[in-house]
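Supplementary Note 2. Why include the ligand at all?

Several targets in our set were suspected to adopt different conformations when bound, so apo predictions alone were not considered sufficient. For every target with a known small-molecule partner we therefore ran a joint prediction. The input for zinc ion is given below.
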Amino acid sequence: MHEWALAEAVIETAIEESRKGGLEEISEITVQIGELQQIELEVFQFALDEIAKAHDEDSLLTNAKMRLETERAIFKCRVCGTEWDYRDTCVNEDEGEAIHFAPEVAHVYVRCPSCKSPDFEVIQGRGVLLKAIKGKR
Amino acid sequence: MVTDPRVSVIDRRLSGIKRIIAVTGGKGGIGKSLTSSLLALTLSRMGYRVGLLDLDLSAPSTHVILGIDSVYPKEEYGIIPPEVHGISFMSIIYFTGNEPAPLRGEDITNAMLELLAITQWGSLDFLIVDMPPGIGDASMDVIRWLKRAEFLVMTTASKVALETVKKVLKMLEELHKPIIGVIENMKMRESSAVQDELNGFNVPILGDIDFDMDLEDSIGDANTLLETDMATRLKAIAMNTPEFQLNSDL
Ligand SMILES: [Zn+2]
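The joint prediction is reproduced in token form.
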């Protein structure tokens, strides 16, 4: 249920951004979820809806629809330039769980498939981002 | 618009904590992690509810000092730090194990942010933070995110350490951050070097801790650590420093 903590962060930020942008009502929140974080989408969706209900003092979120988009995780080696997909790497269950909590620790468990370097970049698909908020002013 | 939602939730995660004490200093090897660990242990033994957060991600070591292994956080609306020696303890080592984590600056920022966003501390009297060393990106991030932190600055009498410590103090002053004071660690002889070098700063020197030959043998054992001269001296300094606001009856 660490999804809950991240969902809370999303709702908190959405409320903050809406106030800054002068929104009276949010109709849709788009969240981009990086594959590397291995979020359980159903749990995350449920958490977002529940937290939105709990934080709806001024009915800002009453009709808010949560849209989840996932982004594939892609790595690029800083030594030899190889790009590869997280799905093609083998990590065991414990390692996968560690990456789920702190995606950066992928650097401990994942190596470049060509040159075995641990020095790579996560070029996309790292974590949870708030991508768009739609609503009425 | 693409916003990282984690920053907004940090204050909420820390909201049940009365005081946040960030232990900082110049270069590595001046006893920052030892001081953080001993301070957390001491306050916990005095009866306070204490958390210890190791944010020195490039060289986490508080778990080695306190002899913490084979514990893992619980997952519940985030992650709950396990309690070890009476301290709620959080470190990246739960996720990296003892393997090296080759993290670059941006990765360190992300990993620290993740820890701050998902750790559920509950209610604490003190959170002790072992800061990243010096004034790089990582330190600046932590200073920005931990808005209520009060800073305890460690130094030695070495000119090399003091040079960095002065920069740390200058930066904290410019950012209007509260500084509890400076402690001189690993004192080997009488010298006014620390006093002289820090003359221009409006920061109290709280005391000094003699170089402790026996300390190394106590690493990894919380009870023996608490009996070292360093622990005794650190406790005395904390008790004598009004800014710590310690209750002497505890
Ligand atoms: Zn490579």
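Chain B touches chain A at residues 1-9, 12-13, 75-79, 92, 94-97, 99-104, 107-108, 110-111, 114-115, 117-118, 120 (CB under 8 Å). The CA atoms of residues 60 and 237 of chain B lie 25 Å apart. Comparable summaries for the other entries are listed in the accompanying table.
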